[in-house]
Amino acid sequence: MLPRPARWRGGLAATVMLGLALALQQADGGLLDRAFAATISALRPARAEGTISALPDYRVSVEAYPVAGVTRNLSGLAWDAQRGHLWAVVNEPPQLLALDTDGDVLARHPLVGFHDVEGIAVLGNGQLLLAEERRQTLVVVPMPAGADAALSRDGLPALTLALGGGDNAGLEGLAYDEARDRLFVVKEHSPRKLYEIRGLRASLAGRLDIEVIDREDWIRNKFVARDFSSVEFDPRTGHLILLSDASRLALELDADGRYVGYQGLAAGFAGLAGSIPQAEGVTLDERGNLYVVSEPNLFYAFRPD
């Protein structure tokens, strides 16, 4: 939900400007992207003094870096604090990639028996979670045993969520709150959805105590994000980051689902020379650095400015 007009510069004028910004953003061309950047930057909400944001002002440090060995379908992204590197997935052919913070490939793991893998989260305890979009299934996988070792889906624990038809608008992104055993899942569009799943790790231990919460009230009026291609949980702030490919934004919500801020991903934001073409995965490390992957095979890194 957008903040009340009093919290935005210009009141009614700001609302009109936002409509103009969204119209500009949907058109092609670098000049229009920069016009969108300038317009929506003028609408930045006034944050209460002392409020901590997961999305400070950023400056791009790695822009549109092609990930080696990937020609298309680069998708979800997650930070592994224990190992100090990133995990990314490719949905076709299914692969799990270990990346450093410059986007270079450290290891490549074929995913045998997986289909249309779109999202990834680090569960801790030597486990990852992968989302298969069309199957609408969450699969718990062990950390790879060695460099370039394949991972087979056979016999792995899985949870299927019935979120509608098995089309290309199913499970799109994952984020895990390890401290509270909460998993956040986004559905891209038709309609956009945000779910909170509680008790996943406890259920893996045999307690069978899963609760699925539809967080519709957190996203209902956030029309500035036209779709959700990924989600990230920031343990430093307890905030969620929702990535919108169509709107070229990362939207920040606080622990109660209230809008806090955003990071633009169009040309003109954060020093970007060009707009991120199809942002599919987002994550933060413990220092607040922001990482984004984009189809077909592009990697981006942003440092707090």
Task: Note down, in words, how this protein is organized.
- This protein is mainly β.
- The protein contains 4 helices and 21 strands.
- It has helices spanning 12-25, 30-41, 200-204, 216-219, and strands at 58-66, 74-80, 85-91, 94-99, 105-112, 117-124, 127-132, 137-142, 151-152, 158-160, 171-177, 182-187, 193-198, 211-214, 230-234, 239-244, 249-253, 259-264, 279-284, 290-294, 298-304.
- Strands 2-3-4-5-9 form a 5-stranded mixed sheet, with no helix packed on it. A 4-stranded antiparallel sheet has the order 1-21-20-19, with no helix packed on it. The chain has a 4-stranded antiparallel sheet with strand order 6-7-8-10, with no helix packed on it.
- It is globular.
- It starts with 11 loop residues before the first helix and ends with a strand.
- Mean pLDDT is 83; it is low at 1-16.
What attributes does this structure have?
single chain; 305 residues; mainly beta; five-stranded mixed beta sheet; 41% strand
Topology, pairings included?
Blueprint: H1 12-25, H2 30-41, E1 58-66, E2 74-80, E3 85-91, E4 94-99, E5 105-112, E6 117-124, E7 127-132, E8 137-142, E9 151-152, E10 158-160, E11 171-177, E12 182-187, E13 193-198, H3 200-204, E14 211-214, H4 216-219, E15 230-234, E16 239-244, E17 249-253, E18 259-264, E19 279-284, E20 290-294, E21 298-304
Parallel strand pairs: 5-9
Antiparallel strand pairs: 1-21, 2-3, 3-4, 4-5, 6-7, 7-8, 8-10, 11-12, 12-13, 13-14, 15-16, 16-17, 17-18, 19-20, 20-21
